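Example 3.
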Amino acid sequence: MAFGVIGGAPGAAVDVDAGPSRRSPVALVLLLPGLAYLALFFVVPFVSLILTSFQAPDPLAFGAPGAYVPAFRWENYVEVVTTYWPQIVRSFGYAITATVIALLIGYPLAYFIGVKLRRFPLLQALALVLVIAPFFISFLLRTFAWKQILSDNGPVITVLQSLTILPDDARITGTPVAVIFGLAYNFIPFMALPIYTSLERLDLRYVEAGGDLYAGPATTFWKVTLPLSMPGVVSGTLLTFIPAAGDYINASSDFLGSTQTAMIGNVIEANFLRTQNYPVAASLSIILMAVILALVAVYIRRAGTRDLV
Amino acid sequence: MRRGLRFGVGSWGLGVYAVLALVLLLTPIAYTIAFSFNDSVKSNIVWRGFTFDNWTTICVVENGAVCEAFGTSIMVGVVATVVATALGTAIAIALVRYRLRFRGAATVLLFLPMATPEVVLGAGLAAQFLTAGVLKGIGTIILAHILFCISFVVVTVRARVAGLDPSIEEAGRDLYASPGQVWWRITFPLLLPGIVAAALLSFALSFDDYIITSFNRGAATTFPVYVYTAAARGLPAQANVIASAVFLLAIALVVGSQLFAAARRKRLARLF
């Protein structure tokens, strides 16, 4: 269920695996087209990505761009890690920081809407619309707007400089701060919505019971509210971390970043689409995927959630 | 008394924090809409005064490039949404209603595309199209969009199927309705809200996708691709106009449907 919370009707807490009892050929007819599609356009491409990651330069092409032959050149991985380890480390560092920031902004927001606004259904509905509002306007244009707002002549820098908080030559765009901010900003709704869905159903009598047993508000939060909202926190953090680790729009020098903030996604994009160095792009993609799956597996085990879809 | 006071202060602090978070969320939206009215010349960066002109010249500026990219996005979004919604709804029904031997494998296969970063999905498909010698264009964009929409459709429709009482369909069958009649007269109408939500989600995902599209587009240009390429040289205000118009329409739809649902609940409450 962890991923079932975005876009789904909130409150539809149905045990999905309750007990379908019939076996029927109809099931196959229903399943096969979609699963075949996923096999053809997800599994097969993944295999060809792995094959591409081991390709070697075509010896007959004399270094022409994009000319590679099937091989088992595992050295590709060694070369990619030794060349691009700063971008790899940076990607996960940025993504983890952005996820924490999005959680620190998204959780209180979700708590306020899901618990404090319960007595005001109209306000609650309005606040929810405002949280999903960013989904309805282009991700690129929102990021571009931040680029202008945070730019060297923009309002934020000007105000901070006139208050002498920032020195005259300070900039925000092109720095890690801007990229992490952009990543955190873009994924706040993905963080807040699943948390909202689990807090909205939170039975407040549990919280009252915590108070009755002489727990302070902080203890009640840590021992009662937070554990009960953990499913939302897990799906929110995954929905933020995974796309953030692979994102290259915020870190691009056309948006909030510079060449100093390049992440794995930027390297994959440049190698695949510009220099046509397919094996480098493919092996980096495999590394990105492997690290994400490993981190997610550890995280899910520690957070104690079983169901994912 | 003291505890009550402390809760009060905490609530106020939380409220202020939440409002600030909402302001943060909405700031770039307000910026984008405001700059759709900017009397800009070439690049739309400095505020030069209010005008409605940009709203009437969407298809004129840059020989209609913005308009054309928008049209491509709508086309891609509609086709991808229809196919993904059909495939995904079928999977959702099968998963909830039938006992399956390979349920675990199917669930993993549905979960993985959502757990894969877009850049990997995009590069994988592009590697595949390259190996297979497929020419990239609008067709490959649509194929890619269907792929990433299916899982979200399944997740959205599945909850609705699970909440559906099978005895209603049984009643239909008892009254000698054919399987087709049961589906079109009973099941489909009851699932419709879930299917519509899934379709809207698919369209929104497709319409806003840049990363996967950029790997599989060939020479075709969708609206996000246009914005990304134009961002380097300066974005015309007409791009803001399109984004703002889509935003206002979507918000109107959401608010309208909420009000409609609230009104219907009230009517039903009065009936019983």
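The CA atoms of residues 199 and 234 of chain A lie 13 Å apart. The longest strand of chain A covers residues 56-57.
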